[in-house]
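dumping this here before i forget
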Amino acid sequence: MQEKTQAIIRDDIDRVRAYARLFDVTMPEVGPDGSVKGLPAPYPREVAGVVRDGHRLTELARLAAETGIPVQNPILGRNSAAETMKQSRDMYAIAEQLGIKLFHFVHSEATRHIDPLDGAELIEQSRGKGGITPQGEREFVQLGGGAVHPLRINATGDTPHLSILNAFIAGFDGTDIGPVIHVHFGGRGIHDYKTKVKNGFKALEICAENNIYVQIESHKHLNNIGGTDGSGLAGCLLAEGLAVLAGLPPELGALQMNVAGINLLADLAAIRAFRRVMGSEALIVVPETFQSPPPDLIAEQGHFARMAMAARLGGANFYRPKAAESVGIPTGESMGHAIWATQNIFENMAPITINDPAIDRREEIILSEAMAVLAATLGLKSLPAPEDITADFWRRFEPEELIAKIVAAGKQGILDAPRAGGWDLKRAVKTHRDRDGIRRYVPGYGPALIDPGYLDFSREEVSVPPVPPVTEKAKVVLATVGADAHVVGINQIREAFQQAGFEVIYMRGMNLPETVAEVVAESKAQVVGVSNLLGLGVTLFPRLDQRLKELGLRDKVLVIAGGRIAEKEEDHAELEAKIKTEGPGFIGVDAFFGPGTDPQEPVAWVREHLQELKEVDSNE
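structure:
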C-alpha cells in the first residue's frame, strides 16, 4: 500500500526533512531499514472527527452537474489557523443561510513555491505572508476546518509533492498542482522547468495513490500572462496526460479555466472546447483578473457578475467568487457578500442553452490550435482529432518521455506566452486582445514549429513597436522580492522603461532584497524597482534600503516600489493613507506605485528625479 508515495519520500528524504525543520511540522521519516514511518493511511480517513476524502469534492462536482448550479470555490486563507477560522466562520455563515456547501480554497503561505532545501534562506526571509502556514493547515482542520465544507490547498511551486504531503497529513481533501503551465510559466519557484514538471508528476502520483482531489492544471495562469485559449487548453491536456500516467482517476481530477466576461459567446466557446476534449470530470471556472475592477467591494460584484453568468450558462462544476481583488486577501465578511451575490445570479438565471454559429466557430478555432500545439509538442506526424485524446492516447508514452517532450516544448517556444515567467523558457510570441474580447496572436508572432494555418491571428491593425535603442544613460534594475511569483505588473513596468529608452536588468521573481542591492552595485544602476504583492514590502523594502546604505549607494540610487501595501483588506486603507500623508520613506523607498498604476507614471517620475540626482552629484 502507498508504494509510490513511500518511494517518493525515500528518494527525497533530505527535502522532506528540510520542510519539517523550516516549517516546524512533523513529516514522514525513513528508518534505518528503509521503512517509512509517520505516513497516514490513504483517504477515506477520519481526521478531527470527519471522514476526509477527495471523493467529497467529486460528489459536489456531480451535484453541480445535476442541478446546473456551480458549487462555489471561494479563496480565503490567513496566516494563522485561528485567524483563518475566524474569517471563515463569517463566510460559512452566509453559505449556511443560503443552504449551500462550499469548496473552500484555503490559500497557503507563499513560501510553498520554494524548495525547502535549496531555497531555505528565501523561505526564512519571507515567512508569514500570502496565506496559511503549514502548521496552520493542521491546526485549522483540528479547529473544525473542512467539517462541513471540503478543503483544498494550493501546492504549486518547486516541490508540490511536499506541500501535498503536509496537507494530506492535515486532512485537506484536495489540492492543485499545475505541472505544465501554472508553476513555471507563472514564475513560481527557483528551479528549472524540468525539475518542476518532474516534481509535479510526483505530486500527481501521491494524489492518485491517496485519493486526493486535484486541480491538475490551469488555463487561467497562461491566460493571465497573455496566452491564448488554444495554447492554454493544450497545456491542460498535457498535464492530464501526466495525471493518467500517474494513475489519477477522472473523478478525482479537475481543470481550471478563465472566463473574461467581455464576450459571452467566446466564453461559452472556450468552456465547450474544454468539455469536448478534457479527461477530468470537473471544470473549475475562474473570473479573469487584471481587468482593474472598481476599488469598491459593492461595485466590484457588478464587475464579476459578468463572469459568473458565463460560468452558470457554460455548466461549470465549480466557480471562484471574487472579493477585494484590488486590495489583497479579503475578510470573511466581504467574501461572504461575494458568495451571496454569486449565488443570487446562479439561482435567478433561466436554465437556457445558447446556440450560435459564433460559438461553434470559436470552439473549432480553439481546438485547432490546441491539437496543433499537442502535435508539435509530442512529435506527431499529423494532428489528432479531439476525440482521440483519451486515456489510451496518453498511455503510449512513458512518464519520463512525456516530461521530456513537455520541457522541450517550453524551451523551443512551442508552449509560449508573452509574459511567461520561467527563466529557461523561449519567449517570442506576441498576442493582442481584439475588440471582441478574444486574445489572438499578432501576425508573424505565433508559437514556434506550428503551421500558422492552425492559429488564430488578430483581425485588427496591431503595430509591434521595434525594440527601442538604449538612449538613457541610467540603468534600471527590476525584481520582485521575497517569495512572490507575481510578475505581470513588473513585466509591464519593464516594458514601459524599455520603450522609454532605458537599459533594464530584469531579475524576474523571488529575490532576496540584499541580492537585488548587490546587482545594483555590480551593474552600476541608478534606478532600482522592487515589487511584492504579498504585503511583505513593509519588511523587505527597508532591507534593500539598508543594504544600499551599507554599499554606500543609497544617495546615488532612486528606489521605487510597487505591489500591495498590505495583504489584508482591512490593513490596506490604513497604510495607503500613511503613504499619502507621510510619504513612502517609512518603507525605505523614494516612491511607491500600487495596483492600477499607469506604467508611464514611474517612468515619468524617474526621469524627473534622475535630473535631481544629477544636480546633487554636480554640486558635490
